[in-house]
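Hi V.,

Quick status before I head out on leave. The structure for the redesign project is tokenized and pasted below; the design run finished overnight.
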């Protein structure tokens, strides 16, 4: 249910969701939308009062998210186009060659290729991302898994799989499934996703215990999550 309030010269539009709960939560998402999760019996007057108290925080949060670079447009795979890799933008440079190779060097993503069509180039880059993802994801897992020694969980294996709405998930058998597009994010964001899934191997659901452990292992997890969602959403 969409509502709005006026604060000074600004109009704050928000989505209202009522749930069986005792407290009210106000959230600002990376796309700058505002969500209010309110108790079922909370009055409109109380909701608007809380929003006005939090208005400066809401506006500052929206400005923070707006400060990021715009999301990437659909890729055309032409020379000079920017492509993300591990949090950095690289200019695409196409070089005619007898074999296909991809590498990043001196601020450029250099593609030596026999291909000429957008579809062939897209597949070439996608396969390169997957190869790099396998190496980087496993390296990050090795680094962060030591923080879970006391919880006696077996070290999981990583599976790379394209997912439309998730960066990662885990199975009861101890596999961590990661989206190959995650390789476009900075290492800090990759660490966040892997740690999130490792915590799920200790606590399956998003309980208080889950978030307590996540905060203990990765104190700034919320900032990393916000950055990931905005850069690659």
């Amino acid at each position: 249910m969409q509502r709005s309030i006026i604060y000074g010269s600004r109009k704050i539009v928000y989505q209202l969701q009522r749930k069986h709960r005792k407290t009210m939560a106000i959230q600002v998402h990376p796309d700058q939308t505002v969500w209010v999760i309110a108790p079922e019996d909370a009055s409109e007057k109380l909701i608007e009062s809380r929003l006005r108290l939090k208005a400066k925080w809401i506006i500052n949060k929206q400005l923070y998210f707006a400060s990021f670079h715009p999301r990437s447009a659909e890729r055309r795979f032409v020379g000079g186009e920017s492509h993300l890799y591990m949090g950095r933008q690289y200019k695409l440079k196409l070089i005619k060659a007898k074999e296909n190779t991809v590498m990043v060097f001196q601020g450029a993503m250099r593609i030596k290729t026999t291909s000429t069509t957008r579809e062939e180039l897209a597949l070439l880059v996608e396969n390169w991302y997957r190869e790099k993802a396998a190496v980087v994801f496993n390296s990050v897992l090795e680094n962060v898994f030591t923080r879970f020694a006391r919880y006696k969980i077996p070290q999981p294996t990583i599976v790379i799989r394209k997912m439309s709405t998730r960066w990662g998930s885990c199975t009861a058998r101890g596999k961590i499934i990661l989206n190959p597009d995650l390789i476009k994010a900075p290492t800090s964001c990759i660490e966040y996703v892997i740690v999130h899934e490792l915590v799920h191997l200790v606590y399956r659901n998003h309980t208080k215990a889950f978030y307590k452990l996540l905060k203990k292992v990765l104190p700034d997890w919320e900032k990393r999550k916000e950055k990931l969602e905005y850069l690659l959403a």
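Above is the designed sequence. The radius of gyration is 21 Å.

G. will cover questions while I'm gone.

Best,
W.
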